[in-house]
Amino acid sequence: MKKFIGFIVIAAIAVLGFVYPLPYYIMQPGGAYELSQFVEVENAKLDSEGTMSLMTVSMSKATPFTYAGAKLSSRKDLLPETQVRSPHESEDEYNLRQLKLMTDSQFNAKYVAFKKANKEYEIKYNGVYVVYVLEDGASDGILKPGDEVIGIDGKKIIRQTELIDYLAEKKSGDKVKLTIIRDEKEQTKSVTLKEIPGTKGKVGIGITFTENKSITTNPKVKIEADKIGGPSAGLMFTLEIIDQLTEGDLTKGYNVAGTGEMLESGEVGRIGGIDKKIIAADDGGIEIFFAPDDKITDEVKKLNPGIKTNYEIAVETAKKIDTKMKIVPVKTVDDALKYLDDLKQK
């Protein structure tokens, strides 16, 4: 009997050790994935001798045993839950936000690529997409992340500025009727405006949102990367689309990868986990890696004295792992295109 009880105790400890969630995430190198498996431009000439790859990091919830393992590993970082998710944001809401960031990244990639290639495109705006509902805000318990707000008080909302301007004339206690789309069905929600938590008297509906938009292109572009979250593949999506849209081979026979958010302006935005992506790129045989050379303002430096640019972190990591991979700083997509254009054929 004692042996049986001992066995049960040990089994319970083992289960808890591997299953019980801790308020931490473990970040470690992911992989390098060729973009040709995710991006397809209609009637494209796929004649590249090299490859374009996006990079990923692996994020997992820590348990007691995996936490201990991460503490002993130089390839893994432990991140407090509050550093990964917004306050009061559930796991599902976090995943939804990451997928929306990826969708917006794909929009920007198509937009920038088609502008650079002088190809046809058309943008359609359709209100705003709810990213996060503030706790104790006006819409708490009424709206949900993923809702699409397409109207207010009978007025159609097409651009986000229209919603912002309309609410600017309102005061605390005013009621508005929002027309939303949830689960592909149109609904009406009544919201009483109140002060937005954390602001100095600013009144609103208590949500963070992004513009809800889509782009139609000629030729058509299909991007299938639903299982990859976040905006960090934006730069590489853009380069892959341009490579498929235009004559020639951007890669010049090299294995090319990189990271960075693609902004509508063509600038390359800062991302997280670049050190882990450098390690993953080296593991994956990447020869050229584009790293955001992001500008850090004096204000940000004051708040974070030790902060470094993505490029600086990438170079430090490359030296640490003694890789022969070339790290290339890019502020804009034009920087990456110029580097590839000047590159000699392998």
UniProtKB/TrEMBL annotation:
Q: Which reaction does it catalyse?
A: Hydrolysis of proteins in presence of ATP
Where does the record place the catalytic residues? 232, 277
Occurrences of domain PDZ (ranges): 98-184
One of its GO biological process terms is: protein catabolic process
Note the InterPro entries from the entry.
Answer: Lon_proteolytic, Lon_Prtase, PDZ, PDZ_sf, Ribosomal_Su5_D2-typ_SF, Ribsml_uS5_D2-typ_fold_subgr
Asked if Transport is a keyword of the record, the answer is no
Does the UniProt entry include the keyword Hydrolase?
A: yes
EC code: 3.4.21.53
Q: Looking at the record's lineage, which domain of life comes first?
A: Bacteria
Q: Which NCBIfam families match?
A: SepM_fam_S16 (NF041438)
Regarding protein family, the annotation reads: Belongs to the peptidase S16 family.
What Pfam families does UniProt report for this protein, alphabetically?
Lon_C, PDZ_2
Its top-level enzyme class, in one word, is hydrolase
Coiled-coil intervals:
none
- Using the record's annotation, list all stretches that form the Lon proteolytic domain: 185-343
MF terms (GO), sorted A to Z? ATP binding; ATP-dependent peptidase activity; serine-type endopeptidase activity
* Protein name, as recorded: endopeptidase La
Q: Which UniProt keywords apply?
A: Hydrolase, Protease, Serine protease
